[in-house]
Amino acid sequence: MHTPRSSLDRRHFLTGTGLAAAGILVPSRALAATDSRSQPPTPPDAGASGRGPQVGDAHRGPCVIASGNGPNATERAFKVMSAGVDPAEAVVAGVKLVEDDPKDTSVGYGGLPNEDGVVELDASVMHGPTHKAGAVASLRNIKNPAAVALKVLQRTDHVLLVGEGALRFAKAQGFIEENLLTPESHAAWLRWKESMGADDWLNPEERDWPRPGRKTLDEFLADEAKQSRAPGDNAPIPFTWGTIHCSAVNADGDVGACTTTSGLSWKIPGRVGDSPIIGAGMYCENEIGAAGSTGRGESLIVNCGSFTIVQYMAAGLTPTEACLAALKRIVDRTREKRLLNEKGRPNFNASVYALRKDGAYGGACIYPGGSFAVTTSDGATKVHPCTPLFDAQ
Ligand code: ASP
Question: Ligand 1: distance of its center to the CA of 242 in Å?
């Protein structure tokens, strides 16, 4: 098990500030770094985390980072940003590729729906230089919620629009309403609904159909479609969480961040995860850097996940250390029995990503499995495993 470095020891924390009163305990040098508004945080000595130098510690200069499902997004955002577009707009352009991709069942078009079979999307975006944010939650029928969130940021005095109001705003901004269910996500929802054993929905064992020896029309159509599909298209759809986060810093050290998702599959209609909550699913401060999260949104909300990472970077932790320290807070504050495994650790995973103003970057997860994509100052795009807090569940 990884033990965060001694600088996180409570003895080193202030206790009398408003942040401390709110439960966010920040070392004094963090406040100094935040208040000065000019100095990038000083990286700690290599090896201070107990894990040695991590990928991304030494990188400097323009950079775009995303969750592991976003190598196309980082590449696109980097290209857009390099043409002089603001990082906040560039990350929205990057995640659009994933929102538009019907094969990513965690985001935008093709995202898994709520328990009623309706896709509800959450997204947020934040602009470092103005410290302004925009977000939408429970948005239906609009494929690109991150672009709507950007309009909220750019064209309103508000931060978060939800549900019907968010949809009306999107339409007023020229976004087109469309059905976001794909045949695959619809079929996955039907399978889930039928497996619930509730109401009058019959699961496959209960149905007197198909008739013996007969092929159903659905089977015939599926066979027909299969012949025109690429290998691997029939892989099972994961029924879980999923999201893309993307953060960027340009050559001037300006940062932007964005997170977009269809959230937890089969959720209660109206359930909102961390992704559109500023400070939970995404956060940035132009003097420090940006952070974002994927995974169990409820835990990231109650622990202010992304805000905490940025404050830890201000305190001098490297991006990877800051991510690990924020995850440790989540682990330490997960107390409900239903969320704990036999070792008393969370029975869920979360992955978090951080990008410092000077270009250093990193990603961490509670348990192995998470990954992050990064496009660096040399233009190269790579996917790296997140550094796990624990080596196994
Ligand atoms: N964090 C997202 C949510 O809870 C889902 C995910 O990232 O997997 O809505």
Answer: 5
CA 160 from centroid of its chain's CA atoms: 17
Query: What pLDDT shows up at residue 36?
Result: 41
Which DSSP letter does residue 318 get?
-
Q: Are 84 and 187 part of one and the same domain?
A: no
Distance 124 CA to ligand 1 centre (A): 13
Q: Does residue 346 lie in a domain region?
A: yes
pLDDT of 208 reads 72
Check which CATH number belongs to the domain holding 322 and give it: 3.60.20.30
In degrees rounded to 5, what are phi and psi of residue 372?
A: -135, 150
Shared-domain flag, residues 189 and 79: no
Let me know: does 150 contact 144? Beta carbons within 8 Å: no
- Report which residue type is found at 304: C
For residue 300, which atom of ligand 1 is closest to its CA?
Answer: 1
* Residue 276, in any domain of the structure: yes
pLDDT value of position 200: 67
The angle subtended at Cα 223 by Cα 218 and Cα 227, nearest 5°, is: 145
Which atom from ligand 1 is nearest to the alpha carbon of 271? 9
Ligand 1: lining residues by beta carbon, under 6 Å: 241-243, 261, 263-264, 273-275, 294-295, 297
The rounded Å distance from CA 315 to ligand 1 centre is: 27
pLDDT for 18 equals: 32
- Per-residue pLDDT, 314: 98
Of the candidates 241, 270, 273, 266, which has an alpha carbon nearest to the alpha carbon of residue 162?
A: 270
352 and 307 in contact (C-beta within 8 Å)? no
pLDDT averaged over 10-residue windows placed end to end, the chain, 393 residues: 33 31 37 40 42 91 97 98 98 97 89 94 98 98 98 98 98 97 91 75 69 80 72 50 90 98 94 98 98 97 98 97 97 96 96 98 97 96 97 90
- Catalytic residues, by residue number, are 243
Does some domain include residue 149?
A: yes
Determine, yes or no, domain membership for 232: no
User: Do 153 and 25 fall within a single domain?
Assistant: yes
Q: Provide the pLDDT for residue 199.
A: 62
Alpha carbons 55 and 20: distance in angstroms, whole number: 31
Q: Which atom of ligand 1 is nearest to the CA of 267?
A: 9
pLDDT at 176: 97
Range of the domain at 217: 183-224
Taking the model in full, what pTM does it have?
Answer: 0.81
Q: Are residues 131 and 37 in the same domain?
A: yes
Among protein residues, the one with the nearest Cα to ligand 1's atom 7 is 294
CA 112 / ligand 1 centre spacing (Å): 12
Residue whose CA lies nearest to ligand 1 atom number 9: 263
